[in-house]
Structure formats: structure tokens, C-alpha cells
Amino acid sequence: MSRAFSDGPEDPINRDGLRPRFWETTPLNRMTRPEWEALCDGCGKCCLNKIEDEDSGEVALTRVACRLFDDTTCRCAQYPIRHQFVPECISLDANTLETHLYWMPETCAYKLLWQGKPLYDWHPLISGTAESVHEAGVSMRHRTVPEFEVGEDDWEDHIIEEPT
Ligand code: SF4
Ligand code: SF4
């Protein structure tokens, strides 16, 4: 997943020096790389395992997190070299976004902008702090279970509700 941060020691996403409210004036495919990375709110939901119904195509998110997800920082523990450990982890960009929308969380900034919706006030680009995501109850910090503790057959016991 494409993520990045920086308004505190636990936030690796750098949001300094960006054009003011660039997300309201610039299409996703015209953003600079730093702007694109700054859109990620750090909720951690894209690092959750999903259950997909083969018949309906519906996707449910579970609280069962990827083996590299750090539940305390709500970040990938090895983001720069994650593909060495999790080769299936996606790299999200404007070209691949559409193919992933069906499973992405409803609060994800990339999905919101794709849908023509505004960012929430708790988004760090608006609030000025990554903590607002956790305070709003949107993030998965302290809310996951590691995948090595839960067998795939039991994932359905850990489905989480998504805001609509
Ligand atoms: S779901 Fe979206 S906003 Fe949340 S961590 Fe993943 S890319 Fe970032
Ligand atoms: S490797 Fe796992 S924890 Fe890291 S970004 Fe990908 S899904 Fe998230």
C-alpha cells in the first residue's frame, strides 16, 4: 500500500511544503508524489485481511492484520522493504487505484477523492496532526489481531463494520 506521514515521531508521512489544499484543485493523476503520499491518513485499514464472497463479490474487512502491521504505531513495520516479506502487498498509485476501490475502506482518502467527496475534518492534512485519525476512532491502532494468531477459517469471527 502506498503510505507515508510526518508530524510526530511515529508518523513517517511528510506533509510539509505541500500546496495548500492541493487535493481540492488537483486530480489524483496530476498530484506530485509527495502530495499523493500525504493523502494517506494512516488509518491502517488497507493492511487488514479481507474476506471476499465469491458469489456476490462483496468484501468484508477483518481486524486480522498483515504480519508486518505494527498495531501500536498503526504503520507497516518494514514499509521500504515490505515486498521481501509480503510480496502481494500492493503499490497504490493513480493508475492502480480503480482496480482496488472495491475493497478499500469507505473512509480512505484516495477512495473519497475518487468518488468526488471531500476529506473528513479528521484527516491530518486538515487537522494538522496524525493523532486526529486515532481520536476520531477511524484508525486500527490497538484494534487488530495478528494474522499468525488467527487461522484463515476464523477470520469471519473478526469482521469489522465499515461506515457507510
Ligand atoms: S486505507 Fe487509505 S488512508 Fe487508510 S492507510 Fe490505507 S491508503 Fe492510507
Ligand atoms: S506489507 Fe502488510 S503491513 Fe506493510 S503496507 Fe503491506 S499490507 Fe500493510
UniProtKB/TrEMBL annotation:
Belongs to the UPF0260 family. It comes from Roseovarius nubinhibens (strain ATCC BAA-591 / DSM 15170 / ISM). InterPro entries: Puta_zinc/iron-chelating_dom, UCP006173. This is UPF0260 protein ISM_11790. Pfam families: CxxCxxCC (PF03692).
